[in-house]
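Box S2. Input/output pair 1.
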Amino acid sequence: MAKDKRGLASASEDTRERVARAGGEAYHEKRGLQAANKATRQEVARKGGQARGRD
């Protein structure tokens, strides 16, 4: 029984290249806490320190 091409394997070469290229590009430059302002980062760090103190 032969397997049919599924997913991107069935797409044209141009489509596969376009999708592969898009995988390396971030939607935005900063992710996670880098995108947050200083006050938010400090609050998250404080809460993390409190959680570690309970261990």
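Box S3. Input/output pair 2.
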Amino acid sequence: MECTTVQDPVEAYGIKHKLKQKFGKAKKQAGKVQALKKILADIKEIAKTSSEQFLIKRDLVDDLLYRVFVALKNSGFVNSIVKFSLTDDATRHGVVELTADLLEREVIPWEEIFEALKTSGLAVDVIKHAVTDPDTRQGVIDLIIELIPQLIDSGVLDLSEICKPIHPIGQIPPGKTPMKPPMRFLRPTNTTKTQ
């Protein structure tokens, strides 16, 4: 006696639907890979013709670079490339130098960096790490000590803006409640009695 199982049509449709989705995604990825292959072929062609011609029109190079970056963006490889560049020891140093150079030449606007840190919620983490990590704390302190006189001299910062938040010891700023001292300050330091 031979036993056969009848597959539930709903289950068969579910499997068929999942397979269809998987193949659809695979087709999209294959299309992106094909686009990248075409761009690479274009790059090879330009490299071959550039050896024959001494000068290449600037707009052709710009167009090619634009196509490469758009294809990378659309392929989803950009995040992987950036992640690899920042986590690989061989490439990280170059990426850091390039980023510093672009910031120094104001190609990357500082405002966008600070706005991105603020909106992502990373600004607090960056400052907290800079102040609490012993390896970076002294560097931050040295940087602040170096910057404050320059900011005051250039008029960006007023000395009163620095002194306002600093209150004499024991004086409580208006609207603030007194802080409790840490327990180590409550322990007596000298236990000898004078008679």
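Caption for Box S3: The radius of gyration is 31 Å. The chain has a mean pLDDT of 74.
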